[in-house]
Amino acid sequence: MADLFAAYAPRDDHMESARPGPPDDLSIHTMTAADVDVVAAIRDERDGSGHSGHVVWARSAMARRARAPDDFEIIVARVADAAIGYACVWRIAPSETAPSNAVPDGLYLGGVVVRPPFRRLGIGRALTAWRMPWIFARSDAAYYFANSINRTSHDLHREFGFREIRRGIWAPGVPFTGGEGVLFRADRPED
Ligand SMILES: CC(C)(COP(=O)(O)OP(=O)(O)OC[C@H]1O[C@@H](n2cnc3c(N)ncnc32)[C@H](O)[C@@H]1OP(=O)(O)O)[C@@H](O)C(=O)NCCC(=O)NCCS
User: Fold this and answer.
1) Residue 160 falls within a domain, yes or no?
2) For residue range 94-131, what is the model confidence (pLDDT) as tens digits?
3) Is the CB–ligand 1 distance for residue 76 below 6 Å?
4) Of the candidates 118, 44, 54, which has an alpha carbon nearest to the alpha carbon of residue 84?
5) What is the pTM (predicted TM-score) of this model?
6) In this structure, is residue 169 part of a structural domain?
7) Arithmetic mean of pLDDT, 168-187
8) Contact assessment for residue 47 and residue 4, using Cβ atoms and an 8 Å cutoff
9) CATH number of the domain that 86 lies in?
10) N or C: which end of the chain has fewer CB within 10 A?
């Protein structure tokens, strides 16, 4: 099992010229039934909790999209025809009995994972760039939250206009182990 979060390694100014572009054969598409197994494998590689539980998760993700296509999307990144990452968008609508620090109702970027051998090639950025117009076609605001210790995630999202809104947030089913939850928001750009 790899670490849950990528080690934080900000790029120095002198490394700017070394920034690689995404692979020429990178493609991004919405997840299909044929991707269930490999998305489960990517999730298991990350957290080691077992393939079968992640298959259930991936199938339920497909079902959720079929039920509410404007509230949920899941996409897969491929390089040379192999799936090497995935990412989601979902609506979170906390119930009236949720804690007072619950995240607001809205469309959230979530669940972006790139397989370790393919990281730092611009694939997380490409998965995020795909999802921003999807959200802005449906909402004035895009949200995401991350563990405070996942500074890699904060840096990835910053270039998309996200700004920190609140710390110590509650989000359904997310434990924020080792840190606290941080909520970010980006507004739809003016035309
Ligand atoms: C976060 C994650 C998806 C990034 O994917 P990636 O394909 O490696 O990201 P990219 O190559 O597109 O990087 C885009 C920008 O994100 C930031 N970034 C990515 N990895 C970073 C790292 N290890 N340290 C610091 N910043 C990083 C940088 O600003 C980077 O731009 P740069 O390479 O030009 O400096 C990947 O590290 C991952 O799967 N992590 C584990 C799961 C996770 O934490 N998901 C986020 C939960 S909210």
Assistant:
1) yes
2) 888 999 999 999 999 998 999 999 999 999 999 999 99
3) no
4) 118
5) 0.95
6) yes
7) 96
8) yes
9) 3.40.630.30
10) C
